[in-house]
Write a structure and sequence with these properties.
This protein is an alpha+beta fold. Helix content is about 35%, strand content about 20%. The chain has helices at about 1-10, 30-40, 55-60, 80-85, 100, 125-130, 160-175, 175-185, 195-205, 215-220, 250-265, 265-270; strands at about 20-25, 45-50, 70-75, 110-120, 120-125, 150-155, 190-195, 210-215, 230, 235, 240-245, 280, 305-310, 315. Keywords: Signal.
Length: about 325
């Protein structure tokens, strides 16, 4: 009985206050705190409270009647948004710029907006590599090297939609047989499997492993540490950050105002800030930050980001 009560409490979000937005998100608290802090400095803005959970947990929560307390969803998972749209949980959104919406799958384009983009690559602990006398890996193929046995980290594709997308991208690029061969051989080198994608970055920072595949914004937030380095996969898929308004939101107008703020020049600059670790979907004014890892770094150390509009893939880049 006690377990049932605890589960019910976990599934039920606290009742929203009349002057706040509740935003459900698959991102870690550190990935959203800077955006929210800057938004709340805007005149007339309302407070935002976040529910940070996995895609599966949010899917379960938002399928219940308790979803009426949630106003927004912020995620990199198109699968989660597809599920919510199919169950008529999302409200229509219009007026997003075309440069943003061409990054959104057509099936969810009427409700979901792309406000930032990320890519996939390898986060490495330079000190741990040096201690183990290992070279820095550059691509998936390098991770199959038996010298990395017991030294790599990865999140579970069944728990992390970010990792799910990375795995799908690999399979599309290499083909089913070769792709699975690469994944299974890499799996033999893992020291552990993290349940969340940001857990991989945290464990690499702590030295539990030497390297692992991660989304760039989690890596970028850690690159102030000189012992850490990040490099994109040579052909990394683009991973947009999506935002959508829940159909039963009690504060739909404020929720839409927040989305428009994220799409504004100021919002795009904040999303490209070192404290957020992402890239904007619209061009920034000269002199503005151009990438999450750039921060206060000079141009020579900033991430150089290029997107092929035909393949939606990042060009090769290093930090």
């Amino acid at each position: 009985m006690l377990a049932l009560l605890l589960l019910t409490a976990w599934l039920r979000p606290c009742a929203a206050q009349s002057n706040e937005l509740v935003m459900a998100t698959t991102f870690s608290p550190s990935a959203t705190v800077w955006i929210i802090d800057r938004w709340q400095k805007e005149p007339g803005s309302v407070m935002i409270r976040t529910l940070n959970r996995t895609s599966a947990s949010l899917e379960q929560l938002l399928d219940t009647a308790n979803a009426e307390n949630v106003d927004l969803i912020l995620t990199s998972s198109p699968m989660l948004l597809q599920h919510l749209q199919e169950h008529q949980k999302l409200a229509p959104f219009s007026g997003a710029p075309a440069v943003s919406q061409h990054l959104v799958p057509e099936s969810i384009r009427s409700t979901s907006v792309a406000v930032a983009i990320s890519g996939f690559g390898l986060l490495m602990n330079r000190s741990a590599l040096m201690t183990r006398h290992l070279p820095a890996p550059a691509d998936w193929d390098d991770l199959t090297d038996p010298r990395y046995q017991g030294a790599l980290l990865m999140s579970s594709p069944s728990r992390s939609d970010t990792n799910h997308l990375m795995v799908e991208s690999l399979l599309q690029q290499k083909g089913w047989i070769k792709g699975w061969e690469t994944l299974l051989t890499t799996a033999g080198n893992l020291v552990t499997i993290s349940s969340r994608s940001f857990g991989v970055a945290d464990k690499i920072k702590s030295g539990l492993g030497v390297a692992g595949p991660v989304i760039d914004n989690y890596a970028n937030l850690l690159l102030y540490d000189p012992h850490l380095a990040f490099s994109y996969f040579p052909q990394s898929a683009v991973s947009p950050t999506y935002v959508a308004v829940l159909k039963n939101s009690q504060h739909a107008s404020e929720a839409r105002r927040f989305i428009r703020y994220l799409l504004s020049p100021e919002g795009q600059t904040i999303l490209a800030d070192a404290n957020t670790g992402k890239y904007p979907v619209t061009p920034l004014a000269p002199g503005k930050s151009t990438g999450g890892a750039a921060g206060d770094a000079d141009e020579s150390t900033a991430i150089k980001l290029s997107i092929d509009p035909q393949t939606s893939a990042f060009g090769s880049a290093d930090v």
